[in-house]
TrEMBL record:
Membrane topology, as annotated: Multi-pass membrane protein
Keywords (A to Z) from UniProt: Cell adhesion, Membrane, Transmembrane, Transmembrane helix
Keyword Transferase: no
Residues that span the membrane, as ranges: 39-59
Any single GO BP term: cell adhesion
Cellular localization per UniProt: Membrane
Family classification: Belongs to the ninjurin family.
Protein name: Ninjurin 2, isoform CRA_b
Length: 74
């Protein structure tokens, strides 16, 4: 299972709840909301990059299933 997905699913709702509580129309909240938006965007970008590398290098095929289907029997 992809390890980055559970991390993102637990982090993103916290960011969204924090963002929803602040009013964008208030000038004093705009800097904080911008920082939260940047953090959420960064987390999504990192998750996508990690998933691309996992898919590209076939890391999902390693483990006990791949060991049992090896062409070299023990």
């Amino acid at each position: 299972m992809d390890r980055s997905l559970p991390t993102v699913t637990t982090t993103h709702p916290d960011l969204l709840v924090s963002t929803a509580r602040l009013n964008l129309n208030e000038v004093e909240n705009q800097w904080r909301l911008n920082q939260l938006n940047n953090a959420a965007t960064t987390l999504v970008f990192i998750t996508v990059v990690i998933n691309i590398f996992i898919t590209a290098f076939g890391a999902h095929k390693t483990g006990s299933v791949a060991a049992r289907t090896s062409s070299n029997p023990i």
